Amino acid sequence: MSDPVAAHRRDAALQGPWAVAVLTASDRRTEANDASGAYLCEAVVAAGHRLAMYRVVREDLETLRTAIAHASLVADAVLLTGGTGPAPRDRTPEALAPFLERPLPGFGELFRWLSFQEVGGAAWLSRALAGVGGGRVYVALPGSPAAVRLAWERLLAPELPHLLAQVRRSS
Predict the structure, then answer these.
(1) Per-residue pLDDT reduced to its tens digit, 83-96
(2) In this structure, are residues 149 and 157 in contact, taking their beta carbons and an 8 Å threshold?
(3) pTM of the model as a whole
(4) What's the sign of the alpha-carbon dihedral 86, 67, 168, 133?
C-alpha cells in the first residue's frame, strides 16, 4: 500500500521550483544585519526554490501591506519574519489579514507547540500564522532566528511545495 502523503509530496516537488518572497518587518534591522531574513533566503534557495524578492520593511501597517502586495505579484509564497509579537508595533498579522482568504490555523498551533518545547511558556506570545489567498501562500513568523529556523526546518521545508501545489491547482 502506498503512502498518499509521500505521493503528494513527490508530485508537488515535480511542479517546482516555486517563487518565494521574503519580507522582514523591522524598524531596527537592515539587510546587513537581518539574520532571520538571510536564513530564510538561503534556505529557500537551498531547497530548490527561486528567491523572487527580499526586503526589509518598516513595521508600519500600510508600508507592510504595500510590500506584501508587491511580493504577491512576483511570488507563489510570501514569507514574513518579524512583527508577530504582542508589542504595539507588531502588526504583521494585521497587515496580512486582507490577503488571506483561508487561514491555516494548524500552522500557528503547531509552531507554538514546537516553540513551547524550545522556549517554554513564552511560546504563547507568538501570533505566527499562515494562510492562502489569491492562489498564494502567506506565512508570518517571529523575528527570532531560532524561531525562523524551527519553522522552516519542521514545518515549511517539508510541506511548502505540497501546499503550493494544492493552492495553485485550485486557483
Answers:
(1) 999 999 999 999 99
(2) no
(3) 0.92
(4) positive
